[in-house]
Specification:
Elements (H helix, E strand, L loop, with lengths): L1 E2 L5 H15 L4 H15 L35 H12 L29 H11 L12 H16 L7 H5 L4 E6 L8 H14 L7 E6 L12 E2 L1 H11 L6 E7 L2 E8 L5 E4 L11 E4 L2
Parallel strand pairs: 1-2, 2-3
Antiparallel strand pairs: 4-5, 5-6, 7-8
Helix pairs in contact: 1-4, 1-5
């Protein structure tokens, strides 16, 4: 069982510091403005909409571009529009244009690193890559530092081998889950890994690994159903042969359950049946979009 796994460690750390540098163009009021615009375009009060799978949300930050060169909290300056676009796209190789790591999803804006990098990104490159406690993250360069990190740690820290056949042959079962709004580890990374496993295992993949994406959930918590018991689902799968076709998840406010919905095995998404309470999981089904 792996929740929001950092399996592609070197590139996750690289993308993290890169995003912190890009996000310096933005401020907290600006990402709050952008987040409100995304929710207005792609979500609803009852949390049913394109953010069930944010890849369906195509909101363009150009819509917030300031009409003049003024910089107010009601619009984005041209550099801020470009920064937002870059953060959605993720870092890429300057020479080939090939992606290095996925970008952030629409809906994740409130977690963007406008106040600087988190400790994992900074400490990894400072202490483990450069071996210098005084190293300054402002000096980070993707082209140089990714090569250094790969040379030192790709074979040690990266767990991206898609061939899970040895694991499967021992009867292994794997449940992966991650929030769609994760801004510490952009979620398309684990989708990419899951897809790579399916290519290797083919039809057997569904008997070995299942991925559950959590809409409106960040790195563990969020507006959506962020409480789940994946361990119980794994136990039933291993001990009883009951493969999880859905996992019940809830959102708790204070001491009250304020939302209850099923999480569906990717690529299925949760779909309201059209009747009944929107906070009762029984009124939802899993379906392909």
């Amino acid at each position: 069982m792996a929740g929001a796994p950092t399996n592609n460690w070197v590139r996750a750390m690289t993308a993290g510091l890169w995003s912190a540098q890009v996000a310096t163009a933005l401020t907290r009021p600006k990402i709050q403005l952008l987040n409100r615009a995304v929710l207005a375009a792609c979500d609803s009060v009852d949390q049913i909409g394109a953010l069930d799978d944010p890849r369906q949300c195509t909101y363009d930050p150009e819509g917030l571009r300031c009409p003049t060169n003024d910089d107010t909290d009601s619009c984005l300056t041209p550099p801020q529009v470009e920064a937002a676009k870059k953060l959605y796209a993720g870092p890429s190789d300057a020479q080939t244009g090939s992606p290095i790591y996925p970008g952030f999803e629409r809906g994740s804006e409130l977690g963007w690193p406008v106040d600087g990098p988190n400790g994992n990104w900074n400490t990894y490159f400072g202490l483990l890559v450069h071996e210098d406690a005084t190293w300054d993250w402002h000096d980070f360069e993707v082209a140089r530092d990714l090569v250094l990190a790969d040379q030192k740690h790709h074979g040690v820290l990266d767990a991206i081998d898609p061939n899970l056949q040895p694991f499967a042959s021992r009867g292994g079962k794997l449940i992966l889950y991650q929030g769609w709004n994760d801004s510490s580890l952009p979620p398309r990374n684990i989708i990419n890994y899951y897809d790579s496993v399916k290519k290797v295992l083919g039809a057997d993949a569904n008997r070995v690994v299942r991925l559950f994406m959590m809409p409106r959930v960040a790195h563990g918590l969020g507006r959506g159903p962020d409480q789940l018991n994946a361990l119980a689902a794994l136990e039933r799968w291993v001990e009883d042969g009951d493969a999880p076709d859905r996992i019940l998840a809830q959102h708790v406010t204070g001491t009250y359950v304020t939302m209850e919905r099923p999480l569906c095995p990717y690529p299925q998404v949760t779909q309201w049946k059209g009747t009944g309470s929107l906070n009762d999981a029984a009124n939802f089904e899993c379906a392909l979009r």
